[in-house]
Amino acid sequence: MTPDDRALVDRFLDMMAAEAGSSRHTLAAYRNDLERTAENLGSLGQASADDLSRLGAAWADLSPATVARRSASLRRFFGFLIDDGLRKDDPSPALPRPRLERPLPRILESPEVERMFVAAEERAASDQPTAVRNLALLELLYGSGLRATELVSLPRGAVRPGQPFLMVRGKGSKERLVPISSRAEGAVARWLELVPGDTLWLFPSGKSHLSRVRLFQIVRAMAADAGIAPERVSPHVLRHAFATHLLSGGADLRVLQSLLGHADIATTQIYTHVDSARLVELVNSRHPLATRSR
């Protein structure tokens, strides 16, 4: 990457951090995409539409998801250059646009989740601090549908007695309310009795809070305790379970979108695949033609 391109990328990432509230991981992903693309273009900031149209061949061995992500990064980058008056034309329409099929989320059935709770509660009965903490983590993951980052970064006072909602700062620093069940409130209250009084975090670890990687390991260990293949379970799988089981229970899709913090309802609609049987039953029982004799 040329020095001029590197300076432009640095300015772009500064903007994304300050104005869009992008996380450290998101900024690193943008930088990696732009640096890899610069290797194919020569000049990133001065690339023409013809230059971008040739990226399809250069990216032929990449997965459609990677091509889509890199194209999205470049569109955002060129949009920034135009907004800041650093170039007048927008070459991004020439970028490759692979057709993506959104993969169906992995989920757990309700009895499997129940087995995880039974195993976690049995361990927590010993009052061992890590077991009490793990039960609180599980209650919040499945009971509130939190993202891993949202969960591990909760402040110490996030869950308040008698308050049925929790304020969460999600992607793009957007805040939303998520429900807190009485079970989760009880599990967290029990855990708070064991949390050091001088920590800022609900789930502290060292000088900071529990990491996403450690949370992933904890969740897989709890799955193994319940006799479930660990590779089938992750914090995000429990978030998917929260969504699919709510939808199966009759939750409105718009409400679910709000609870999950999805900017686009199209993202939420992916969960409707698990409810196909219920939808067929609904049509057969409620549609005006359902009771009409042939």
Explain what this protein looks like in three dimensions.
The protein has 14 helices and 4 strands. It has about 290 residues and is mostly helical. It folds into 2 domains: about 5-95, Tyrosine recombinase, N-terminal domain (DNA polymerase, domain 1, Orthogonal Bundle); about 110-280, Orthogonal Bundle (hpI Integrase, Chain A). It has a two-stranded antiparallel sheet. Strand 3 (about 205) and strand 4 form a beta hairpin. Helix 1 (about 5-20) packs antiparallel against helix 2, helix 2 packs across helix 5 and helix 6 runs antiparallel to helix 7.
Task: Give the topology, please.
Elements: H1 3-18, H2 24-41, H3 49-53, H4 55-58, H5 64-83, H6 110-124, H7 129-144, H8 148-152, E1 165-169, E2 175-179, H9 182-192, E3 204-205, E4 208-209, H10 212-225, H11 235-248, H12 253-260, H13 265-268, H14 276-286
Antiparallel strand pairs: 1-2, 3-4
State mean pLDDT (0 to 100 scale): 83
Content-based structural category: mainly alpha
What's the count of strands?
4
Number of domains: 2
User: What is the CATH domain class of the largest domain?
Assistant: Mainly Alpha
**N/C terminus separation:** 71 Å
Helix content: 40-55%
Tally of DSSP helical segments:
14
Spatial arrangement of strands, main beta sheet: 1-2
Query: Judging by the overall fold, what is the CATH architecture of the largest domain?
Result: Orthogonal Bundle
